[in-house]
């Protein structure tokens, strides 16, 4: 028989839930108050015959009193608690944290899988197992689920939001979600389960992982130094992906709370300010058991649900391994519609693109399934790869159901299928099977690349040099995506930076490169933990690049990001050296043919005195995958002995006022020049040059797709 909490703490909580005192229970049992107090303090336990009387007094069955694996239903049933409006009549028209990310299942996959990796239980050496389940409900299954979440109690709040939907963005998203459910008679659930993870441990309100996820914003509590998240924003993607703003949670704890570990359940609703029956509500609401320790027992806290309750809420976990299940109610994938193409009249800021505005149904579970598999394979291939003595950190799968029946079979994401070349490279590194230079197909070349860590507080000098590991291998014809790219990652083995290696000769074979930094290069690598801390501070909330951030500036210096630029430049140089084909010797070729050729040289034109100024005479620009401008510039150089160094300046074209200037995330010389600290220095005697650049999206004041780019070459420092 499964036995849960100790009898004393369990009984004390049941009395609070039932609104009974120890004295009142003693009177009902015809016992002394001292006897009840002894049970609660753990000095004694009631006789089996008394257990039946206790069950009757609490309005439950004797089995519940014996096992104590759930709370009784006496006194305070599970309900919704909506936060009252502010006394000063302020209004929050949505959770600002949700706007940090798009309503995109690929963004959701990246953030949730990263969180699961961060919470992996490392003591047993096993990977964290993550499963994504798309489940479309219709008909009776939909009606039963709405009854389980007390939809009739929620509907007046949704109706109030819909009435004012035209005035603000969150309301329009919610209104569209409710309309889709009623007009099409369906609701899409997206569940994210992880196993062998810590679970949402801690008190409902005090510091801990539970409160950080369920109660608070902008708080990040991670289990290790190599964790991916640091802003506390990733959890907002769960609510951003729900068109109803509703997420239900069931957690199995790695550390007991109130003597229990299984079926800790709560729900959180994110709506804008609203007014229902003359009462104003601030925004969020919680689905749980009213807390008797709060004024009026109004605030809802988590509760220990029984198996029937979690089944009705579609939160049943497959085993008792620690971890958490998040159920996103009304899941939609706005980015799927954007990828498919939208009409000119669609407003991209609305946060919702339905079938009337876009060409693709944003709630198509088969399309969402495919996009989840794609994103997981692209961003987490390294975490799923093992070799030698190193085990994978992650196993992940995706499936799709409709009313409990399988629509798309569960698919285990295989890194060797999604990223074959990079997986081969990482496995060779783990197995010690790398070479110094590529001479045969299938080989993996390895090279150390230094990252010079700066001193904190703006002090000049180097704290230490961490040796990152660069891996290069020939790209396979199938898979891998674009060729000649380098993926960079750190401790939790999630791909952080993806960029094409610049200035590679056209004659080389296509390749793929991997850069392992921090603990990804080996936990025993010198300054690995310091490199983790430094790079983590250089990542934006999306954790998809390294560059200048406010945290990096405050903790180190405004120029600290240049250490990362130097690392990437060194890695790119090493890649070009590893993939370059050996040059033919000067004695090779036909001597007879060489002697038979006569090349007439024209007399040299007179070289003008003084420095000459290069001119930008060609520009090609595209918008990159991160929203950055990617440009290739062609430069013509007048004949002269001295060529003036030039600074490429990227600006946004505006109708009036000064043009906002953008920072360069990357600037490299391709031909006839080299980029040094943002300045192009030209090869003596060159008549033409080419350079490439990518802007830093953090310096963009508006979305790239809504702007026009102007690039100028300026002499000197570009002021």
What does this structure look like?
With 719 residues, the protein is an alpha+beta fold. Helices cover 27% and strands 27% of the residues. The protein is built from 20 helices and 28 strands. The strands form six sheets. Strands 1, 2, 3, 4, 5, 6, 7, 8, 9, 10, 11 and 12 form a twelve-stranded mixed sheet that branches. Strands 13-14-17-15-16 form a five-stranded mixed sheet, with helices on both faces. Strand 13 (444-454) and strand 14 (462-474) form a beta hairpin. 43% of the residues are buried.
Tags for this model:
719 residues; alpha+beta; twelve-stranded mixed β-sheet; five-stranded mixed β-sheet; 20 helices
Strand content: 25-35%
Number of helices: 20
Largest sheet: 12 strands, mixed
Global structural class: alpha+beta
State the total count of DSSP E strands.
28
- Termini Cα gap: 77 Å
Summarize this entry quickly.
The protein is an alpha+beta fold and 719 residues long.
